[in-house]
Amino acid sequence: xxxxxxxxxxxxxxxxxxxxxxxxxxxxxxxxxxxxxxxxxxxxxxxxxxxxxxxxxxxxxxxxxxxxxxxxxxxxxxxxxxxxxxxxxxxxxxxxxxxxxxxxxxxxxxxxxxxxxxxxxxxxxxxxxxxxxxxxxxxxxxxxxxxxxxxxxxxxxxxxxxxxxxxxxxxxxxxxxxxxxxxxxxxxxxxxxxxxxxxxxxxxxxxxxxxxxxxxxxxxxxxxxxxxxxxxxxxxxxxxxxxxxxxxxxxxxxxxxxxxxxx
Length: 263
What we know:
- Helix content is 64%, strand content 2%.
- It contains 13 helices and 2 strands; from the N terminus they run βααααβααααααααα.
- By secondary structure, the chain is mostly helical.
- Helix 1 packs antiparallel against helix 11 (159-172).
- This is DUF1836 domain-containing protein.
């Protein structure tokens, strides 16, 4: 069956909606994301058969029925995370992050035995940033961004806001939706691709932090750099996913092709 796929921007808007900070309800976000991926089916009247062949994890079924969720189990967060494009996260990994690797930043479940929207966003951020950074580096970044883990009021940018910021900035920089950041100025005979790419991403992050009036210049620079790292990490996630697909195809088809030749 087909997987219900969400972009990071889709997920960010859905998380903001759950916090009452978006004009669209979670169900509307899901509907728009699905419609975007099935425009042909909508046009030719085959949307029902297309949706019936789409796998829905229990957490999405719950959102469709109630349009409201009071916290998430860790399994819910894993299921949601795996609906995000180019993401492959396991329950074991998230259990380790919660209980050991990022315990001081995630804390205990905040809604009874369930995790909050911000805690879910934090787990999605960890999953993205680990594409580029080791856990020790991540913890040092989080100490700067979130300062006292038990006090949300001193966050330079809350987890949901941070996740939304880099998710939306990445999509703005991938206007043609080819999963590659768009960089102007590349051309034949030019060898400064790396500098152009770095400059373009940094400028985009600078534009965002310019409007964060609650931060001082040093804090703005820290958030700018974190957004830069996050956007590069999202780009890296695409290449990791592409490499995994080719590895799986190679392993699966290698013995199959040999059996076919020998048969």
